[in-house]
Amino acid sequence: MLITEEDLMTTIIKTFMDHLQHRDIQGRFQFERYTAVQAFKFRRVQSLILDLKYLLISKPPEWTPALRTKFLEGFYAFLELLKCMQGMDPITRQVGQHIEMEPEWEAAFTLQMKLTHIISMMQDWCSADEHVLIEAYKKCLAVLTHCHSGFTDGEQPITLTLAGHSVETIRYCVSQEKVSIHLPVSRLLAGLHALLSKSEVAYKFPELLPFSELSPPMLIEHPLRCLVLCAQVHAGMWRRNGFSLVNQIYYYHNVKCRREMFDKDIVMLQAGASMMDPNHFLMIVLSRFELFQIFGTPDYGKRFRKDSTNKDLVQQNNTLIEEMLHLIIMIVGERFCPGVGHVTAADEIKREIVHQLSIRPMAHSELVKALPEDENKETGMEQVIETIASFKKPGLTGRGLYELKPECTRDFNLFYYHYSRAEQSKAEEAQRKLKRLNEEDTALPPPVLPPFCPLFASLINILQSDVMLCIMGTILQWAVEPNGYSWSEAMLQRVLHLIGMALQEENQHLQNISEDNVLTFTFSQKISRPGEAPTTTPSILALLETLQNAAHLEVHKDMIRWILKTFGTIKKIRESSSATPVMEVEGNVLEENTRDKDKAERKRKAEIARLRKEKIMAQMSEMQRHFIDENKELFQQSMDELSVSASTSHDNSSPALLDSKLVALGPHQTRFVEQSQLVTCILCQEEQAYNVDSKAMVLAAFIQRSTVFSKNRAKIIQDPDNYDPLFMHPDLACGTHTGSCGHIMHAHCWQRYFDAVQMKEQRRQQRLRVHTSYDVENGEFLCPLCQCLSNTVIPMLPPPRSLYHRLDFSEQPDLAEWVNVTGQQIRVIKELAEEKSTSESESSTVETNVPEGFRPSFQPKNPYSDSIKEMLTTFGTATYKVGLNVHPNEQDPRVPIMCWESCAYTIQTIERILTDEERPLFGNLPCRQDDCLKSLTRFAAAHWTVCPLSVVQKHFSRLLQSIVRQEGSEEAPSVLDIDMFHLMVSLVLSFPAVQCQDFSGYSLGIGDLHLFHLVTMAHIIQIMLTSSPDDNGMEQECPDGEEELAALALYSTICQYTGSTLKRWSSGWHLYRTIKTAILPFLRCSALFFHYLNGVPAPTELPVSGLSQIDHLCSFLSLPSNVISIFQQNPQVMDNLINSWCKHKEVKRFLDVEQTAISYPRESNKLIDLPEDYSSLINQASNFSCPKSAGDKSRAPTLCLVCGAMLCSQSYCCQTDLDGDDVGACTAHTYVCGSGMGIFLRVRECQVLFLAGKTKGCFYPPPYLDDYGETDQGLRRGNPLHLCKERFKKIQKLWQQHSITEEIGHAQEANQTLAGIEWQHL
């Protein structure tokens, strides 16, 4: 071995010490005046510690004499290293003024942390061999004695006397002398002392151990000073020493250092106290805490209270007493160190976990961080966690949590020594809340503790020592007379806990005592005795009984009752002279009697609370009655208004409720008068109804380009300035989506708010950074109420179609007549426009061809107020700007087209989401989406009023031309290249521009109906042309009926007109079922559109899903239940139309398999499928090379979750130019794949990345979780990760609902550090 043959252990340690040559006069390491070069050298030297760790990582299976000799030599060298650390970086309390310069402290703690595992491994090696352990203990004691030699030099010994006991010690004040927090030799000796007990070497070979040479006061002196220092820092006495001391105290208790610092100091105090008279030990503790005078002088507290006016000093002393009592609790109660108590290492871990979970349920990673790690980075948690905690799986958010099992709460110790003050407070609150839920007493008694090992057994006598009883009695006396003394409830709480510990200890002794043993622990008897003359103070028991009835101690009464109950049990057992079984019976009877008393007490309290509640409710009722009597007129007026509004609403809704057949459009449309609704502006809080002639009310909205439903992501608008968006292709390559948070403002209030935001951002540009969660230059702002990202506002309008109704004649034209008349009107409009453009005078031919009742020169009056017209223009321009990615231009003829397109696309989006989630079409939308769709549809229907009439008429002419061919017109797209819902919406919304000049009596409703029927028939032809019999593998459920035969006849007609040999369907049932399945999304979208457009209530009996919806939708939309029959109602017109549709050249190309077409119904797009095991993704990324480098591996491979492309992110090699800016691969990909929005998975970081544009982005928790339900962003923990389908569905839902940009905005507002990331370079 390297230790035996090469003496490597000694060599490493000496080499390490040779490089640390800066020492003070006493030979201790000194890091204070290190230069930068020396600090760098120190960091390099630390690598030697890793070599030493490698050497000690595995204990030897057997010891040889040579190994013992060499190891002990190395151990002695290690002691020399620790000797140089003993007492380094001493500090002195600053008095008068604050320290001028923070001293160097990090180097010493870095060295301590690096050596922590080495010290633990040294002790493990020593425990493996008895001879080595004995020799190591002797040598460590000798080194410690040498370090402490002369620690009493120059100090005058003093004699302390209290409660009839005297002890000699030195005069030393931590607050005045130098003190150090670094005591590695003392702590190593404490660890070895515990190992002597654990391995039973102390009992086997006492003659070989130098116990007679031990000086307990010397052993406890420096650890006690260190703990007093911590107490004084908590009391605020060292606040002038700066943050360096605060940081040292923090790391002293931190989980990284405490095992070989704080914990070992407690063990050393336990070792010293076990070898001392407990009264002497407590007097030394009082002296070091500088509290001896308070407890040693009669009535000192009262005199201090009267004489002193310094409240800070009173608070200081109170805090020091609390800390001193807490220290005694720790010394007597902390037995879960192997060797101190009869416990194992597993018990120690269990106790740590129990107390962490007593604060709150914790995730696995939180628990691991809270537990100390060994040299192998293991905590031992996995071996014990299932016995004390149950795992609760995570939901869509959050992490999996461990919850403490109910039976483990009995092990909770309120004054657990690893709790910080904040943790102790949280744990106390959580445990009291749990007890209240279980209807138990809220007392938190000390738990039953394991027995001490024999070497530490005498520690329990501290609890019954005279000095301890004096301290307890003094504090209880202060509490009895609260006006005469300075005390705190925390002080009393600790005293009650100590009394409870003593009673628990005595109870355990009584239960475990045998006939041969004599019980020496008689705490219950001692607290029953009053004080001796001349100061006859009451007994502790009497003081407790007095405090039980004190009004100012309500919170502690449960604990006092528990103490008195436990005392009664012990007293009964002691008084009983019968056999053990009888004792147990009597004890049980007493317990039952006590329990009955407790139940009666709780019942009495509950009755008092009930009576008090009834009294309060009676008072409230009387006050209400009195208020009504005083305000009779106002109350009566309110009641009248309420009854009137209720009756009005009943009258208005009664037709819709009584009429089971609701119709959304056409001459038979259900008439429903929408009541004027009052809404409140979120900025000025003023209520107003939105009417046509009032000030405009607007909704904050966000418009964005979308490819969420795109079937052709490769299609990109190359020249947006000259692009014609009139016809949307069925592939929905790029749509314009509008969303809203639903918050309402006055238009002028919003304008003032937006102007203020603009001014603020202009001033912000002078600062260091620019706010990036919204871009004011692009019109973006945050909703004033919910801080949701917005870039425009939608005006709120009443139903717009109700404004255009004129006198409608009872006889309305059929489809053929309407098509003929409308065609004539369009021709007249075209001829007039051509003549006007050529500046020729009106000819007589035009006059004679004008249809009867049509007035092409009539200009309708705009019914809206100026404020509403301005908002119509504002939102329309914003839709145009974002939808086409061009500069705003409200005069552009494409503005109304983009408004119609956004309305149609948003409705399609909502319908698709409802279908995928199997939610009802009506009544299930959140208010924000319902208000958004209503406002968007009504805006799109009203926008033509602010556009030039000729522009809208031209758009209608071109739209109608696509389904009703006219001679001499320009070529229109084929039915295969038009999305029929977009076409229907655009036709219906542009038709009023033509109908407003028609005074023949034809209604607007009949036009809507005929347009809808025309588009529906075109969509059926579209479905028949693109459907294939091979796609339907279902078995026929019933024979062909009238509907199925009509579908086959129509299919034959199509085959005849196309002149092609289309595949034959096996039955009409299959064909008709295919048609119904494919047309269902169109009908659902149309139902939503006309519901919001005309304000007709939604049908209540509509099924959630399935083809059974067809009949209800057809009834609602004025369609025959057999949709094929609309072809038979107008055979002559339809033959011509079908012929024109089928003869289109693009249809012929499709039938000749020269091009493809979209089939129906369109499937919803989803994010890519991810592998179950994350290691598959890591393997895929490891094989990915940068496409622009010669085979070099990508440093940050990133997967696009939309299309599956792997990209080389965050790298200069793959940066490209985008509109004059250098952008990374991910940002560039978003403009190709998602119109500027993207979702990516950074494989090596296991992190989801959301991007929107060049300046917005955020990180999102990945859908991969470990076995503990936690994500591992950065892959730091290294646990196996598996796909959580629910979380992946949540990400997909965010994408489908167009909420990615909103999520980014909220994330950047919540975390300002995200603003500093250059997202465009990712």
TrEMBL record:
First-level EC class? transferase
Annotated region Disordered: the residues are 833-859
The yes or no answer to whether the keyword Transferase is present is yes
Query: Which GO BP terms sit in this record?
Result: protein ubiquitination; ubiquitin-dependent protein catabolic process via the N-end rule pathway
One Gene Ontology term, aspect cellular component? ubiquitin ligase complex
Task: Name the Gene3D superfamilies for this protein.
Answer: E3 ubiquitin-protein ligase
Q: Name one Pfam family in it.
A: WHD_UBR1
UniProt keywords (A-Z) are:
Metal-binding, Transferase, Ubl conjugation pathway, Zinc, Zinc-finger
Molecular function terms from GO: ubiquitin protein ligase activity; zinc ion binding
Catalytic reaction annotation: S-ubiquitinyl-[E2 ubiquitin-conjugating enzyme]-L-cysteine + [acceptor protein]-L-lysine = [E2 ubiquitin-conjugating enzyme]-L-cysteine + N(6)-ubiquitinyl-[acceptor protein]-L-lysine
Segments forming domain E3 ubiquitin-protein ligase UBR-like C-terminal? 878-1297
Q: Supply the SUPFAM superfamilies for this chain.
A: Winged helix' DNA-binding domain (SSF46785)
Q: Which residues form the E3 ubiquitin-protein ligase UBR1-like winged-helix domain?
A: 349-445
| EC number, as in UniProt | 2.3.2.27
Please name the pathway: Protein modification; protein ubiquitination
Q: Does the keyword Zinc apply?
A: yes
Q: Give the protein's biological function.
A: Ubiquitin ligase protein which is a component of the N-end rule pathway. Recognizes and binds to proteins bearing specific N-terminal residues that are destabilizing according to the N-end rule, leading to their ubiquitination and subsequent degradation.
Give the family this protein belongs to, as stated in its UniProt record: Belongs to the E3 ubiquitin-protein ligase UBR1-like family.
Protein known as: E3 ubiquitin-protein ligase
Q: Which organism is it from?
A: Eleutherodactylus coqui
The uppermost taxa in this organism's lineage are: Eukaryota, Metazoa, Chordata, Craniata, Vertebrata
